[in-house]
Specification:
By secondary structure, the protein is an all-alpha fold. It has one domain. 71% of the residues lie in helices and 0% in strands. It is elongated. The model has no long low-confidence stretch (mean pLDDT 95).
Length: 133
């Protein structure tokens, strides 16, 4: 994709949006953001498990961000949609208002939209391809 297409086409704008969302969250996770630890305890994990897992989650999020921007293969977009939905849903599970979930819909809807633009795969091998339309 040409640089100008990132700013003039839906695919490019979605790729930039996914990149920003996952890069930002990845950096916070690498820093072991303390306010995220209650999300682990809300699902039965310990705070120390959260402190151990957050850097791994951060690395994964940064990799997803880069892949979404430069090589958005479908399996990565599917993962981003599922992970974005789950992490948004964690907010009300942890006792936050439902609006904290609603506010984060773009975190999962953008990767899902890009996946829809590329076309949902019919074969297993197609999940690991980037469909350049």
């Amino acid at each position: 994709m040409k640089i100008k297409d990132y700013f003039t086409k839906a695919e490019g704008l979605l790729r930039i949006g996914i990149f920003g969302s996952f890069l930002g969250h990845g950096i916070f996770a690498l820093q072991v953001k303390q306010s995220w630890l209650p999300y682990f305890t809300a699902v039965g994990l310990s705070e120390s498990a959260g402190k151990f897992l957050l850097p791994l989650i951060g690395i994964t999020d940064v990799v997803v961000a880069l892949l979404a921007l430069f090589w958005p293969i479908r399996i990565v977009l599917a993962w981003a949609a599922v992970w974005g939905f789950w992490t948004a849903l964690l907010r009300p599970i942890a006792g936050e208002p439902i609006w904290d979930f609603v506010e984060r819909w773009a975190n999962w809807a953008a990767p899902l939209a890009l996946l829809a633009l590329q076309g949902f795969p019919r074969k297993l091998k197609d999940w690991f391809k980037y469909n350049k339309k």
